[in-house]
Write a structure and sequence with these properties.
five-stranded mixed sheet; 55% helix; single chain; alpha/beta; Nucleotidyltransferase, domain 5; coiled coil; globular; two-stranded antiparallel sheet
Length: 336
């Protein structure tokens, strides 16, 4: 960041309240607890003004907590204030050895982290209204699909015996709720399609993404949400890292020397969808099927090849979005 901040405010987010701690030049200005509500957050902003803190020179830092932090993010954004959201894992890996835990202590640690790593700050930007609605509907879709899979898997396990009457009874027990869930899933899919169709920008991006062989609408939609309409990342490699399909080497001295492997720090849902895309595209005659067969003949491991194909798919989608043209194998997309 090029902006010079003079005050660093860590906010620990809970469902009902927010703990805050303000640091300025290694000294604490104020700390306390406020309600996680519109009135509480507005009162907090007024308190900072009363402390003669220049809000335009403040950098706020909070841990990403999903829905619990949305009110805070929205209000700070409405005031035009700079907010930095970090994941719990990022904090853990960069905060050194820590003992003990409490909300006030966490707020201080956030403020201290904010001050020490201000040059690495990535300011939070609100998603478009359509993209935010799309994200929440998509999350709900995953939850419904998970419930359907759970019921069907449970039924399959319970009906392994030879008793046909019991099978029919067990099937009847979940017939109504399973049918309702499947109906809800279909209705939700229609709503998602309608939301994208009404948004010219997202609809164009979806069309470009699905022009890549192997990328279906579900995966394209997941990519749109994960990348905030392909605005969250600067290049395809960053998206591939986020999806967990980029192998990294692990070497140190003479004792640690393992093959390059992908990291578990990834969006596992997106990674799973890309894996299904890769498995699907190699079943169809074409460039990627030829690539897969050639690498198998060379003795490469199957999963390593599939991972390379997942990476290729991401680069192709990104190139199409960047250039604004549908995929065409005769067109030389730059994969940067």
């Amino acid at each position: 960041m090029t902006k010079n901040y003079t005050c660093f405010i860590g906010i620990d987010i809970s469902k009902n309240w927010l703990d805050y701690h303000c640091l300025q030049k290694d000294s604490s200005i104020c700390s306390g607890r406020i309600d996680n509500s519109v009135n509480g957050i507005n009162a907090f902003i007024n308190l900072l003004k009363q402390e003669n803190i220049l809000l335009e020179q403040c950098l706020f830092l909070a841990e990403y907590t999903g829905g619990y932090g949305e009110l805070l993010s929205g209000i700070l954004c409405s005031y035009g204030l700079d907010l930095w959201l970090v994941t719990a894992l990022e904090l853990k890996l960069n905060s050194g050895l820590r003992r003990g835990k409490s909300d006030p202590v966490d707020a201080y640690r956030l403020a201290d982290y904010c001050m020490r790593y201000q040059d690495k700050a990535r300011l939070w930007k609100p998603r478009s209204e359509t993209l935010e609605k799309l994200k929440k509907h998509y999350i709900q879709r995953k939850q419904i699909q998970k419930s359907i899979n759970g019921l069907e898997r449970s039924l399959d396990e319970l009906t392994q015996g030879p008793n046909q009457t019991l099978k029919e009874e067990l099937n009847k027990n979940i017939e109504v709720p399973l049918g309702a869930l499947k109906t809800a899933l279909k209705d939700l899919d229609k709503k998602l399609e309608e939301m994208i169709r009404k948004d010219t920008f997202l609809n164009k991006q979806l069309q470009l993404a699905t022009s890549v062989p192997g990328i279906g609408r579900t995966t394209a939609m997941a990519l749109l949400i994960a990348t905030a309409g392909f605005t969250r990342f600067d290049n395809a490699k960053q998206i591939a890292c986020y999806a967990g399909v980029v192998p990294f080497s692990y070497r140190s001295g003479s004792s640690i020397h393992s093959k390059a492997k992908v990291s578990k720090k990834a969006d596992l849902r997106l990674k799973s969808l890309l894996h299904m895309c890769a498995c699907s595209v190699i079943q169809v005659p074409g460039e990627l099927q030829d690539y897969f067969n050639r690498k198998i003949a060379e003795g490469k491991h199957k999963m390593s090849i599939l991972n390379a194909i997942r990476n290729k798919l991401i680069h192709r989608v990104f190139a199409c979005i960047r250039d604004g043209v549908p995929y065409n194998k005769s067109y030389n997309h730059a994969l940067s």
